[in-house]
Amino acid sequence: MYSVLQSVHSYWAFLVLIVLAIAAINAVIKTLGDKEYQATDFRKALFTLIVTHIQLLIGLILYFVSPRLQLFAELGMGGVMKDALNRLYLVEHPVINIIAVALITIGYSKHKKKLTSKAKFKLIAIFYSIGLVLLLSRIPWGVWLS
C-alpha cells in the first residue's frame, strides 16, 4: 500500500505543479493586462484548489503510513533533525507544503469576496505564486526525478 500511495503522490504532484503554475501565471498576466475576470478564471482557481487539496490528503495518508515515521521514536526529534534527508521527509516537506496549501486556500477564499477583476486576479496571483514557490522549494528533487 505504501509504494502505491507513494507513486500516486509523486505523479499527482506533476499535475499539481502544472495546474498551479497555469493558474498563477494566468492571474499575473491578467492582472497586468487589466483583463476581466471570467468563469474560466474561476474554474482554473477552483480546479487548482481541488487538486492541491487532494494532494494534501494523499500526502497526509502517506505520511502516517510511512516507515520513516518510526524514526521519531527511534532517534528522537534531535536525531531526525540532524539527518538532512529525514528532516526533509519528516519535517520540512510536510510543514512547508501544508503552509503552501493553506496559502492557496486563503487566496482562493479571499478572491471570491472581491468585487473587481483586478483585485481578484491580484489575490490569486500573490497567494498561488507564493504557494507554488513553497511547493517547489521542498520537493525532494533527487529522489522524485529518478
From TrEMBL:
Name of this chain's protein: 50S ribosomal protein L27
TM ranges: 12-33, 45-66, 86-109, 121-141
Superkingdom of the source species: Bacteria
Keywords recorded for this protein, A-Z: Membrane, Transmembrane, Transmembrane helix
Keyword Membrane in record: yes
Natural source organism: Neotamlana laminarinivorans
